[in-house]
Write a structure and sequence with these properties.
The protein is an alpha+beta fold. The chain has helices at 2-20, 39-49, 52-63, 82-89, 101-105, 119-135, 141-162, 176-188, 197-212, 218-222, 226-229, 236-259, 269-279, 287-318, 320-333, 349-362, 394-398, 401-404, 441-458; strands spanning 66-71, 74-79, 167-170, 371-372, 377-379, 382-384, 389-392, 459-462, 474-475, 481-482, 486-491. It has 19 helices and eleven strands.
Length: 493
């Protein structure tokens, strides 16, 4: 009996020693514990710093631009700084996407969609989606017109609330529907009313789900057994509830398209996908794939741009002198007889610089969508084992003191040259780098410009007398979002 106990203890000791040992040549980082890895350290530093991207920045300060961790069962490498990030995004072996419990949970237990897949599936589905989105206006003048119409309707709605006087407007979800409409018209051939309560509830679930996780995949991805032993405490129950509501909404939309489908005629991306399903029934074009593609586009299309717009309004409240300069430029370039158009962008340099500074200062997506090493490789002298998740800190570029000098300051002039023209900067990458950069970048850029320019052209914004100034500190999650605040809208003419 004693012999069995000794052997058992020896086996356990060997298993623990194996579990806490790092791969040879793995990037520097804190020591990890059995099973949990660095999870307790992450929790401690999250309590201290409040945000995942600030934890990653703190670890980079300690260990360098490439930091090696383990969270639960997942190997995680944090990459910061210009040199290391450029190397990752320029190499094909880092083009993979992580595979794990959370990433499959949102895709019916499979690897589906366009955001969290790689290899031939990603190439095929991305190419198909972009080709057909372009057919329905993506990146073309028709898309600009659609965005301008949405901006005009938003302005009209706000004017109505003002009733020839100022109005105090809650900014939470203020831009969700109008931002989503531009994408949804191409994806599903329809738009939503700005007061659609059902959609507002659905988008609220999107926001909630983004706050439950971070770009590493979160606790459920790293320790999936928690979904069984602690479904409520781990957030699994809530996440599944959110996903089912999203799936039901998208499935109903797709089934309605199926009922009204005309052979050989595509009204939108969903129609084009359904035709492809009929032509190639044994291909990757399945209903679950279509639902996941729609989920990817719906969530990405409604979250980052609307959050950025909220932050843009927030900074206008905090920096009235910047708002005054915007009004002066809009009056000089656009005048007061019409609304801004995308064609005005080349001459509205200060407006564009303000948008860029909001994107830089806030970094709504402070960590890019995670990459995965598709094979054993090296990065800046360190071994990166196959299937390691690689997190790219966009925040580290946007807030680098050596490059920007005063990154904490909100100073739009940093993006203007001596003649007042826009000055591009390689360290400014709100949509990421490389082949895996944001799929909706063109739509996001045009939406941000037209919504922001139209609102600032029409209204003066101020902090309501009975409300405190909004805080630039927001909520942590996959993306950053501002805490609820109010703005007073006063028509300028």
């Amino acid at each position: 009996m004693i012999f069995v106990i000794i052997v058992g203890l020896l086996v356990i000791s060997l298993l623990i020693a194996f579990d806490i040992s790092k791969p040879r040549g793995y990037p520097p980082g804190p020591r990890w514990l059995p099973v949990l890895g660095n999870y307790l350290l992450l929790c401690k530093q999250l309590r201290q710093f409040g945000f995942h991207h600030l934890v990653w920045a703190n670890l980079a300060d300690q260990y360098g631009p490439v930091v090696g961790l383990r969270l639960g069962r997942d190997r995680i490498v944090i990459v910061s700084g210009y040199e290391a990030i450029r190397e990752v995004v320029s190499r094909e072996e880092f083009d993979g996407r992580p595979d794990g419990f959370f990433f499959r949970l949102r895709a019916f237990g499979q690897r589906l969609g366009v955001v969290f897949v790689d290899g031939p599936l990603w190439v095929e589905q991305r190419r198909f989606s972009l080709r057909h989105l372009r057919n329905f206006g993506y990146g073309k003048h028709g898309m600009e017109h659609q965005i301008a119409e949405e901006a005009s309707e938003l302005v009209a709605s706000l004017r109505q609330q003002c009733n020839n006087d100022s109005a105090i407007i809650p900014m939470h979800q203020a831009f969700d529907i109008c931002v989503l409409n531009s994408l949804w018209t191409m994806l599903a051939g329809q738009r939503f009313a700005l007061d659609d309560e059902q959609l507002k509830k659905l988008l609220n679930l999107v926001h909630a789900s983004f706050r439950m996780l971070d770009m590493s995949g979160g606790l459920l991805n790293q320790m999936p057994f928690l979904s069984v032993i602690a479904p409520h405490q781990s957030g699994y129950a809530d996440l599944v509830k959110y996903l089912h509501e999203m799936w039901d909404f998208l499935r109903e939309t797709i089934h309605e398209h199926h009922r009204t489908l005309t052979p050989g005629v595509s009204r939108d991306l969903i129609d084009a996908f359904l035709h492809e399903m009929e032509l190639h029934p044994d291909s990757t074009f399945t209903e679950n794939q279509l639902i996941t593609v729609c989920l990817d586009l719906f969530m990405a299309g409604s979250e980052t741009t609307s959050n950025t717009m909220e932050y843009a309004i927030l900074y206008m409240l905090l920096y009235p002198e910047v708002q005054r300069k915007i009004h002066e430029e809009l009056d000089a370039v656009v005048g007061r007889s019409r609304l801004p158009m995308f064609a005005d962008r080349q001459r509205l340099c200060y407006v564009e610089a303000v948008i860029m500074e909001v994107q830089r200062r806030v970094s709504v997506a402070p960590v890019a969508v995670p990459h995965r090493a598709t094979k054993d490789t090296m990065l800046m002298g360190h071994v990166i084992p196959q299937d390691t998740t690689v997190l790219i800190s966009i925040w580290s570029l946007h807030m680098d003191v050596k490059h920007w000098g005063d990154p904490e300051a909100f100073r739009p002039e940093r993006f203007l040259d001596a003649e007042g023209k826009i000055m591009q900067d390689d360290w400014f990458v709100p949509f990421g780098y490389g082949r895996r950069r944001c799929l909706g970048e063109i739509l996001a850029r045009k939406s941000l410009f037209l919504f922001f320019a139209t609102l600032l052209h029409t209204f003066s914004l101020s902090v309501p007398a009975d409300h405190p100034p909004p805080s630039p500190d927001g909520y942590d999650g996959i993306t950053l979002s501002p805490k609820h605040f109010y703005a007073e809208f006063t028509p300028r003419f």
